[in-house]
């Protein structure tokens, strides 16, 4: 909403400047007491068009630069001895937009054409025409307009760079703090869960050694302790994969798939496309998505087969993990921490991800990660 209002104000400001410049040019032209027929009428039209063209300076600065330059030469040739004020505004706008080379070329052409136009008007002889075109004041204004535009463009670029740097710094600090909190939680929970796991294991062992029936609640506690310990080990492995340890990547996928193939379901790996260099962050994310997907299949899918497909494309790396488990299209998946973590990794690299039941049954995880953007 605020940006919309800013755009409206900018447009109004551009039109006010354009109308003001056009009015000043027309008033200056009228002071010369030119006729309103033939060439004189054409001069008045060129004065008005040269000023009003400035309204489009933000959208098409190069076009406005050319139009105002042609109008300046045109009304000089028509006998209107009026300064090229609109052209100076156009020079400023074009340089501010970054079109420095084009602005210099057009400015040189206009400065070269002005004496010829003044000479063609018949108001000046050759010496006066060239002297007027080379007037120090006019050239100084031209240089000042270009310098002002360049200075403002550089200031805006520095402001944008500073804003981008602040955002990147804030995001990096947030990631570091999040990693620190996760590590603290892991350290604080590991000991307590280890105690629960050990005590429940001892209690079950003692009960069976005595020949007593082991309560179901105690067995559930033991199993929960084992599961929590596995989760913490996986979390610790992910936390350590932050650059301080050799990261897992695409080269480790065959080993990962082979380990998964030793479980209750069969796993295959298919690699398509021409393999090329992939940033470490992308390779690490692909590995983690495949790892988490295979882990979820082993725990929840009740599947007999899983397929991992990696597709190397010119600008992206695409992956897909399918299983033939019990998931059905009419059952909406419940996003757990694993899926949320995968989605966060993909989003951080500017990619996209989809995780949903397949139409033919089972579950699919698909992701595309840009290569250039993450490099």
Q: Would you write up a description of this structure?
A:
The chain has 375 residues and is an alpha+beta fold. 65% of the residues lie in helices and 10% in strands. α7 runs antiparallel to α8. The radius of gyration is 36 Å and the shape is elongated.
Keywords:
about 375 residues; alpha+beta
N-to-C terminal Cα separation, in Å? 34 Å
Strand arrangement within the widest β-sheet reads: 1-2-3-5-4
- Strand percent estimate: 5-15%
Q: Please trace the helix and strand order, writing H or E for each element.
A: HHHHHHHHHEHEEHEE
Overall morphology: elongated
Total beta strand runs: 5
What is the structural class?
A: alpha+beta
Low-confidence stretches: 1-7
The total count of helices amounts to 11
Could you describe the largest sheet, including whether it forms a barrel? 5 strands, mixed
Radius of gyration equals 36 Å
Roughly what is the average pLDDT, rounded to an integer?
A: 78
Helix content: 55-70%
């Amino acid at each position: 909403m605020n940006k919309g209002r800013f755009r409206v104000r900018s447009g109004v400001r551009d039109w006010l400047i354009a109308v003001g410049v056009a009015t000043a040019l027309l008033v200056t032209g009228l002071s010369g007491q030119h006729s309103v027929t033939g060439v004189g009428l054409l001069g008045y039209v060129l004065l008005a068009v040269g000023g009003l063209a400035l309204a489009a300076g933000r959208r098409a600065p190069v076009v406005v630069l050319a139009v105002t330059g042609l109008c300046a030469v045109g009304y000089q040739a028509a006998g209107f001895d009026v300064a090229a004020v609109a052209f100076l505004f156009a020079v400023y706008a074009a340089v501010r937009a970054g079109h420095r080379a084009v602005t210099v070329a057009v400015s040189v052409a206009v400065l070269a054409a002005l004496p010829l136009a003044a000479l063609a008007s018949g108001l000046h002889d050759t010496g006066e025409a060239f002297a007027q075109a080379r007037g120090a004041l006019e050239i100084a204004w031209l240089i000042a307009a270009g310098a002002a535009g360049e200075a403002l463009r550089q200031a805006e670029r520095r402001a944008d760079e500073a804003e981008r740097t602040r955002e990147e710094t804030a995001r990096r600090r947030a990631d570091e703090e999040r990693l620190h909190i996760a590590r603290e939680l892991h350290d604080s929970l590991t000991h307590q869960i280890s105690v629960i796991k050990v005590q429940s294991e001892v209690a079950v062992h003692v009960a069976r050694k005595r020949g007593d029936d082991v309560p179901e609640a105690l067995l559930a506690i033991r199993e929960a302790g084992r599961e929590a310990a596995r989760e913490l080990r996986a979390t610790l492995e992910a936390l350590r994969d932050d650059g301080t340890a050799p990261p897992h990547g695409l080269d480790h996928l065959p080993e990962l798939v082979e380990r998964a193939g030793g479980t209750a379901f069969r796993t295959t790996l298919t690699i398509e496309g021409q393999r090329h260099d992939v940033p470490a962050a992308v390779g690490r994310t692909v590995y983690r998505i495949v790892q988490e997907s295979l882990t979820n299949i082993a725990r929840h899918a009740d599947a007999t087969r899983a397929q991992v497909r990696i597709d190397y494309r010119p600008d992206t790396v695409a992956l897909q993990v399918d299983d033939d488990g019990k998931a059905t299209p009419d059952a909406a998946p419940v996003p757990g921490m694993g899926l949320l973590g995968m989605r966060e990794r993909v989003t951080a690299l500017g990619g996209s991800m989809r995780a949903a039941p397949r139409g033919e049954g089972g579950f699919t995880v698909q992701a595309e990660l840009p290569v250039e953007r993450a490099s």
